[in-house]
Amino acid sequence: MMITTKEVSRRIEEFSNKCKEKKFPLTPQKTAIFSFLAGTTSHPTAEEIYGEMQKQFPTLSFATVYKNLQKLKDLLLIREIRVGGQKSRFDARMDDHSHLIYPNGTIVDAELDTKKIPVPAGIHPKDIKKISVHFYLS
Ligand SMILES: [Zn+2]
């Protein structure tokens, strides 16, 4: 699925508003990392994000990129997707959505109506914070 430039702008605006709200100091690097993530559906790894950031900030270290990704994740501005045995991937799409996971590690957004998923026995629907289903493909 393509992301429209309107949606990318909306995500970046929401990002800068949330940063202000949380008093999270914005640096050009953090903004660049988020903007890159907001504009891609590829669910890149930290290494891929670092590779992209080096084009803009040649002196930026991998450790700084990684630390910023963790901070953005802690502030719920991005999400980290961990798939067993594979490198973590990052996603700036924060609404409830699911993923198709290919054997080579590629992750693609899956449009799935999570409201139609039955609530597990013994769980109250109001206790469910988020639903994310991963479909592992062969
Ligand atoms: Zn996603």
Q: How would you sum up this structure, described in words?
A:
This protein is α+β, with helices and mostly antiparallel strands and 138 residues long. It folds into two domains: 87 residues, Arc Repressor Mutant, subunit A, CATH 1.10.10.10; 39 residues, no CATH class. Strands 4-3-5 form a three-stranded mixed beta sheet, with no helix packed on it. A two-stranded antiparallel sheet has the order 1-2. A hairpin with a 5-residue loop joins strand 3 and strand 4. The longest helix is centred in the N-terminal third of the chain and has 17 residues. The radius of gyration is 16 Å and the shape is globular. The model has no long low-confidence stretch (mean pLDDT 91). The structure holds zinc ion.
How many structural domains does the protein architecture include? Answer: 2
Major beta sheet, strand line-up? 4-3-5
**Helical run tally:** 4
Order of helices and strands: HHHHEEEEE
Task: Report how far the terminal alpha carbons are from each other.
Answer: 21 Å
Strand fraction equals 5-15%
CATH C-level class of the largest domain is Mainly Alpha
Question: What is the CATH topology assignment of the largest domain?
Answer: Arc Repressor Mutant, subunit A
- Main beta sheet strand tally, sense and closure: 3 strands, mixed
Helix content, binned percent: 25-40%
If classified by CATH, what would the architecture of the largest domain be? Orthogonal Bundle
Low-confidence stretches: none
CATH superfamily of the largest domain: Winged helix-like DNA-binding domain superfamily/Winged helix DNA-binding domain
